[in-house]
Amino acid sequence: MQQSPRAGREGDVLAVVSQSGPTVSFFDAATDRQLGTVEVPAEPHELCFDPTQRLLWCTTAYHSGYYHANSGRRTELTVIDPDTRRIVEVVDLAPEHGPHGLALDTARRRLYVSVEGSADRPGGVVVIDTETRRPLGRIDTDAPGPHWFAIDPAGRTGYATNKEAPFVSVVDLERGVLTAKPEVPGSEGLAVSADGTHVFVASPYAGSFSAAEERPPTGIRVIDARTASVVDTLPTEDIILPVHLTSTGKLLAGEVRTAPDPASRLGRHAPGRLTVFSADTRKQLGAVEVGHCPLTITSSPDGRIAYVSCVASSTVDIVDLETLEGLARLDIAKLGEPGAHGLAYVPRAA
């Protein structure tokens, strides 16, 4: 008899951001029972779990609203103890603002945080010492709004996607400089292959084009890390926001789907789609319907289960990646729009 994908997860926890909550909620990964909630500064966006320090980092990007539709940019990161479910510290990055993407290098004990630009300088990446929780420096990305950020397994190269800028920013993390700008028509989520040779980038940016016929083909651009150029595209039916690579080599993409609406040029949200590819063969393995507007994806450490937060429906879909069947759907409390956003899987304490 095949073992249940829930087996062995006792004590593991899923942390979920509610952007308008503004909260981080904690769920038992084996039973989906809600364990507690932490109120955080508005507007929380992404989460990153540091297993070395056993802390959660949460970005707070705006005072209200979202990218290009906000009442001003915040400057804080909230540090949370996931075991006691309490705030440890609020780290102020000022004058940096609009922190969003998070990438962790546990070996060097560095956290990389993407921040938006201003009139006098471009966007960039702030480098933080995870022991002292203090900034060490900044790397410019030559783009106004670097959003998602990822690093290669060696911790030497970082990649920032840029919504409006027609390129991905490649930075040398050891020298702290921008080294390349592979061309893509605006970009969203990204993931780096396990061997560091390729980067998978969602493109184009969802807000770049006013009409479907003007938009470049939707999909995942594959960038060769050695040449810093696009070498392939994995096609999708709809715009992709999040991209995630599991420990077993499955490439997960969250497709945002809409239905016609006479009252709106952009249409209305329809159920989204989790599309699964093999990172090695680049072939599509299947897809499953999820909530409205998938915005963040993570997976269990064994690569068996996917978690997809959907901001418009404020839900998290839990999917068995071997059968591509939905296991459960979590409802995430919100006070307005938007809803569920950042995710982090927190294994039980040793």
UniProtKB/TrEMBL annotation:
Residues in coiled coil: none
Superkingdom field: Bacteria
Annotated InterPro entries: Host-pathogen_enzymatic-act, N2O_reductase_N, WD40/YVTN_repeat-like_dom_sf
Cited SUPFAM superfamilies: Nitrous oxide reductase, N-terminal domain (SSF50974)
Name of protein: Putative surface layer protein
Protein species of origin: Streptomyces caniferus
